[in-house]
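Running this now, will post back.
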Amino acid sequence: MIDVTLENFETEVIAASMTQPVLVDFWAPWCGPCKVIGPLLEKLEAEYAGRFKLVKIDSDQEQQLAAAFGIRSIPTCILLMNGQPVDGFMGAVPEGKLREFLDKHVPPADEAPEELLEEEAPADAQGQLEKLQHAVATNPSDDDARFEYVKALLMAGRSDDAKVAFAPVIGKAPGIRRLESLQRVLDATDFAAQQGDAAKAVAGFEARVTANKRDFEARFAKAQVLAGQRRWTDAMDELLEILMRDKSWNEDAARKTYIAILDVIEPAKPKVAEGQIPPDDPVVATYRRRLSSVVLS
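Update: finished.
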């Protein structure tokens, strides 16, 4: 998500729309519905992983741009392709309708440019696991390698293997942030396994939340089951619901678990030329911003 002004509009919107759809969100800080749809759009930008670009324009500060698009109420979203507006909508549209709108216009997930596929071909997952396993075996005291190995096992759904690999450093977890994150996610997978039917468990916790929005134990339990299913963003969404109502609930359990998930799902930084900063993963970057906006509000 990028904030756009008159100065960078040509580059960030018109030029960018020549290579990918650009969704422009006209909003204002005082607008209640804008605060509802804004986080949804950021979430979808992360999930769609480059299939469209989201930009935001403060209609109060950028009245010339708002007038150019004929904005009469906010939130209003305009989709541009090849430098031209092609579609749009007004109001706080539900997430399902947002997905329908985007799916009409953005390219399918499997239609990435050939050159991108060639340059960013995913590494062989099994080969990477074997490499990390070898690094841990040859240097058991390398906590960084162990962290990456356990994380890779968790991301592959091999939670039992992850617990075995984590066991030698379990005593260090309380004093080392990344190891503590692994412990929290492993605890979530154990909790999820204890529930049996995950879908039934989630439905049960959702029923409790519907009856009482401040049933934080039910929300937290639901988040743990979702994390155990590797539904990472859904789990963090539920944890955010707790944080928006009580930032320090249960000795910071929601915030610490949210950060633990971010630590586990964040990919290893790619190598870049000296002096350059490696790009952030879009999902992780979005959810870090969402956490900051809630914690600092």
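The longest strand covers residues 84-90. More later if anyone needs it.
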